[in-house]
Q: What sequence folds into this?
């Protein structure tokens, strides 16, 4: 019977993570069991009207109040430990929560950007999300306490946003947007090229917690298949890359990583509970 441990051996791994990696940190995923119905705002919608920006920032303000308190889970810490031990060639994440970095991971490509940064669409100034959050707290006292269902992108499901006051760029008064790739936007070319370089250098690809429904991540699985390196996909439910995988495991990320570490003679409990 082919197992992941036998397939991967001592190969240097490239890891691609998706939303399922962060569910144990309290951040919901897109398509897993119990995930909320999701109609994310596209980039074209966001820039079209001030009302759309108001709707986005009202939801995102509440969501960030909760998301910023999320902590790396055992899976994040195990991957950081594997990187420290030289087991990983690199890590690409489709998540925008920054939890890999907070777990101690040094080389992370944030494919879709970072929700803890804000960019001005007019002057391109990049600022810290905490600064904007403080400004929004002053403009909208008590708003972050509204009860709403958390969504995967760090916002919430909320319809009534007409009273929310949006903060402009403090440098030029322009339109602010989180420094993440919205649906309808392209991942920056240089970032994509860096990911392909990692695929070329890796001896195996491991996908953790991604349904691979969007091409931004699936293309790297296809590139790995073209190279002929082993591909292991760990995800609860089907993925768009199942037919490309050498091995598919319908399982959770943290427990699967812990088992791999045990098979390699590591002590995952230290990372899981530190």
A:
């Amino acid at each position: 019977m082919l197992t992941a441990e036998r397939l991967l051996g001592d190969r240097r791994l490239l890891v691609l993570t998706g939303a399922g990696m962060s569910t144990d940190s309290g951040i919901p995923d897109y398509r897993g069991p119990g995930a909320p119905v999701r109609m994310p705002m596209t980039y074209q919608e966001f820039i079209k009207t001030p009302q759309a920006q108001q709707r986005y920032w009202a939801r995102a303000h509440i969501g960030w109040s909760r998301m910023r308190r999320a902590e790396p889970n055992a899976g994040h810490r195990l991957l950081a430990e594997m990187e420290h031990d030289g087991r990983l060639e690199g890590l690409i994440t489709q998540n925008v929560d920054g939890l890999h970095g907070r777990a101690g991971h040094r080389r992370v490509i944030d494919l879709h950007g970072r929700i803890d940064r804000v960019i001005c669409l007019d002057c391109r100034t990049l600022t810290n999300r905490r600064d904007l959050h403080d400004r929004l707290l002053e403009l909208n006292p008590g708003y972050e306490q509204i009860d709403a269902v958390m969504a995967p992108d760090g916002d919430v499901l909320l319809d009534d946003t007409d009273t929310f006051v949006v903060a402009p760029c403090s440098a030029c008064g322009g339109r602010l947007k989180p420094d993440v790739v919205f649906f309808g936007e392209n991942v920056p070319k240089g970032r994509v090229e860096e990911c392909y370089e990692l695929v070329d250098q890796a001896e195996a690809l491991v996908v953790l917690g991604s349904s691979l429904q969007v091409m931004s991540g699936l293309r790297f699985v296809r590139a790995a298949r073209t190279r002929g390196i082993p591909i292991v996909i760990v995800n609860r439910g089907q993925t768009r890359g199942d037919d490309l995988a050498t091995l598919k495991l319908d399982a959770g990320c943290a427990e699967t990583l812990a088992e791999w570490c045990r098979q390699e003679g590591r002590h995952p409990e230290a990372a899981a509970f530190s």
